[in-house]
Amino acid sequence: MRWSFKVFHVAGTDVRIHVTFLLLLAFIALGSFAAGDAAAAIYGVAFVCLVFLCVLLHEFGHALAARRYGIRTPDITMLPIGGLARLERMPDNPSEELVVAIAGPLVNVAIALLLSPFASGPFHFAGIGREEAGLLTNLRNVNLALVLFNLIPAFPMDGGRVFRAFLAMRMDYARATAIAASTGQSIAVIGGLLALVNGQPMLVLIAIFIFAGAQNEAAFAQLKHLSASLRVQAATVTSFQSLPLDATLNEAIEALLASSQHDFPVLGPAGDVRGLLTRDDLIVALRKTGADTPVAEVMRVNVPSVHHTMLFDRALAILQESGCPALPVVDSAGRLVGLFTPENVSELLLVRNALERASSRRAAPPRAGPPPLPV
Ligand SMILES: [Zn+2]
Q: Worst-scoring range by mean pLDDT, 51-65, 175-189, 335-349?
């Protein structure tokens, strides 16, 4: 996540703050100071910080529940619109996904219950001043609103995941996601129209955000479904060129211009992979040091290789994590047999998607297909 910085590290998770969140705080403080009300500025900033503490605890609810199933949460980022916990992966089992999804809102239920004796309302406990009671009442109400908002059965809200998990206990995952996604989109369209009629631009934006989130989730589930049980070799580019370790950038340029290949594995004398020369690194080096530079000085080293029988989604995760535009594919003897690239992955998925649609048309009467894959 760009434009965010780490604030602290707790229970194996980095807590990061996005700079726009600080802008929000500055905006609230400056607005009140400009109106000549320092007390309101302090109150406003303190209140927003408390609300965000509750949102952070909500995200830790997800993170700690996920950890029960051996899933780590590398970071949580706080944005002006809320928190974003980046889980390593989602649990595959619907009942586990249900627990992870519901854990967040349950934290806000717990906070609201804890605050109730100090807030105004039926459980009010008299020994507290009006001023503090006002702040705590607002905080309790925000937590209740967070529960209701998050339980809307639409992606990317927790309610969407809860709904999908319930469906997935009765049908396959891709179909459950398709139903949950279209339900969420219908809710977003109806909510967005109501907000538009009532002149609520903020709610219209949220509706658009929900609509896009549902589409993303459906595409992701489709990817998972199409790539299940596939191996790396299915998406390996096998006709490719490599460079010897003693080549110069001149030779790399020739290879680049002579083909549509962008990234070149660099091989040692025994044919072992020593590194990867990417097109971007090549261009940067050309500008800095010229065409006679040895590729060995420019190539990326420590590029992870993937085995040709590795499961596809595992290799995809390694590719994403590495930040490399391609990964070398090796066989059991450690020999380079090809390249694993995002372009090839999306082509393979397009083909699988088309074949699957053709076979389902032949096998069953026509029904609404899963959402298309983004390319
Ligand atoms: Zn949540």
A: 335-349
* Span from the CA of 161 to the centroid of ligand 1 (angstroms): 10
* 312/329 Cα distance (integer angstroms): 12
Q: Which amino acid is at 65?
A: A
Phi-psi region of 334 (alpha: psi -120 to 50; beta: other; left: phi over 0): left
Which one-letter DSSP state was computed for residue 300? B
Distance 108 CA to ligand 1 centre (A): 10
CA of 106 to the centre of ligand 1 (A): 9
Tell me how far the alpha carbon of residue 157 lies from the centroid of ligand 1, in angstroms: 7
Q: 17 — alpha (psi -120 to 50), left (phi > 0) or beta? A: beta
User: Counting Cβ atoms within 10 Å, is residue 163 exposed (0-12), middle (13-18) or buried (19+)?
Assistant: buried
130 sits in the region (left: phi over 0; alpha: psi -120 to 50; else beta) called: alpha
Q: Cα(201)–Cα(192) distance, rounded to whole angstroms? A: 9
> Pairing between strand 236-237 and 336-340?
antiparallel
Using the mean position of ligand 1's atoms as its centre, give its distance from the Cα of residue 368 in Å: 30
Q: Which of 163-167, 214-218, 368-372 has the highest mean pLDDT?
A: 163-167
Instruction: For residue 155, report the distance from its CA to the centre of ligand 1, in Å.
Output: 11
